[in-house]
Automatic annotation (TrEMBL):
Bias (Basic and acidic residues): 300-317
Organism: Tolypocladium ophioglossoides (strain CBS 100239) (Snaketongue truffleclub)
Region annotation (Disordered) ranges: 277-331
Domain of life: Eukaryota
Protein name: BRCT domain-containing protein
InterPro entries membership: BRCT_dom, BRCT_dom_sf
Domain BRCT: 1-97
Amino acid sequence: MPRQIYRNRVLAAAGPLPGELTVDNLKRWTKLRRGEFTEDFDETVTHLLCTKEQFNKRVPRVKDALTRGKRFHIVHYDWFEFSTVYEKRQPERDYSMRNYLAKQNAAKREQAQIERGKKEGEKFVNTNLYHVYIDRDFFPYQIDITRDEAATGESGQRYTLSLWESNAKPHLYWFTAKFLKRKGDSQPSYYRPSRCSGKWRREMDLFMDFFRIKTGLEWQNRVLGEKTMPASLFQYSPPPVGRRLQFEYEYCLEMNARLRGLPWPPAEASVVTEMNDETNGADPATADDDAESVTSSYGDHGDADTRSSLVDEKEAELGAPLAPSGEAGLISSPRTKTWILRALP
């Protein structure tokens, strides 16, 4: 479940925003984090998202917002993107468009990004032409897997796996991996198996195969098998979002706890839930309504953008998460040598 970073915040946009920040996506991603995105611009709005061009041109909403005082936030759309991806609300002052210095910093960041993209394109991927692929649940396909095995001197090793999506349409995709041999290493090595970008299916398979080889786990079992593999393999700590799991997310957490001999549900979570219920005076009916609201947000994909719908057709080949059924037990896949759980009743 995404963190409630936009609770009691009402967001609006000064105009059309670039990339995946369509009105439908903004509404869905904000609602998942307990906030609200509105197409109107009234007194309830707390944050206005805008581009540098919209601010410089003083479009009507920006002009209106400037008269509302400093307690009303006019922020660069980067604030929303970084807050959502990292599941932590960023300080508004760092992205404030009221501050002339903030505007200068935005221009410097853009220029630095262009130069960095050109440099990386010489041996890796030009980030001016590609961006990290993000699925419709706002999960960025750029992950770290690490290994700390002091006995072999392999401490602090890290791979960063990325699935890139072209800015141009129709979208092309490219899998890459960056390797740091030790903590603080400033000379990474790069792995790019495909000579050029290609279709999503091919590059996604390369992403999942590399993950399986290095961690010993299938990508769909990343939650179920977290911290269950030998230290000689690379380890991955998945965030509480993302798609393509073998089973439903909560069920994977429960099975992982049983594999590791941990209590389920976690004792701390039970205590926190009870304290929150006592403090807030929440009743079961209200809690059920909230859960239903969040579930419906995840399930409402009818208004996804064209890019998402095209990719989703390919994602459907992987199948939906399985519901629990059958008897308890472990089975081994000869092909991958990966332990996966057979569902518990």
